[in-house]
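Section handout, structural biology tutorial.
Before the tutorial, make sure you can parse a SMILES string by hand: atoms, branches in parentheses, ring closures as digits. In the record below the ligand is ribose-5-phosphate, and the chain has 235 residues. In the tutorial you will relate the predicted structure tokens back to the input. Do not try to memorize them.
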Amino acid sequence: MSATDPVKLMKQEVGRAAAAKVKSGTIVGLGTGSTTAYAIEFIGDRLKAGEIDNIVGVPTSFQAEVLAAKYNIPLTTLDAIDRMDLAIDGADEVDPNKNLIKGGGAAHTREKIVDSLADCFIVVVDSGKLVDRLGSTFLLPVEVIPMAVTPVMKAIAKLGGQPQLRMGVKKAGPVITDQGNMVIDVKFDQIDNPAELEATLNNIPGVLENGLFVGVADIILVGEVKDNQPSVREF
Ligand SMILES: O=C[C@H](O)[C@H](O)[C@H](O)COP(=O)(O)O
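Predicted structure of the complex:
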């Protein structure tokens, strides 16, 4: 990836824009993925520069915990708080109604818990993540308890989905989530009713959580780039 890689420029710019919305004395959900990683870095930069202080983060993954430690952002847990002021997180697809597919990094279960508890959930994406209809470019991740992988795949096939077990890269065998579970990625020809599908999938015994986020996001920050100049649009 070159220094002027347009996707990198867009991710950095939305990360910076999201970090700029963090105020002193707030509790912030820290999402997962390459775009949110920039937001965490820029929050750390603002803390270091003294622009903000007294921030506490709630991590959505081991990756977020590691980044928070790297940038000296103190962390807390959901046992210690009732709510968050803000959550910042990426997405794999965003539709015009601000509904999302998440879980490209297998973190969607903890992300849905944290992002749902925030007063304001800000999504940070590059413009390539915008779709007219969810499921058109990205397979839908479903986290499953390991002993239930086969029956869940059969149940998903009966619903019309094409399931595949997510395999590791630079690791033999399946991807294991931060909770010790596996991920089934599902191709649906068409997702007409995301809310209904979200509930139907979660109702299959053995499914922990799927990557459909319906009615959770408040603000979408979209990174765009033209002539190597990045900008951010909000909706
Ligand atoms: O499980 C991972 C998350 O849902 C990520 O937020 C999502 O995959 C987007 O990641 P990235 O910003 O790297 O495209």
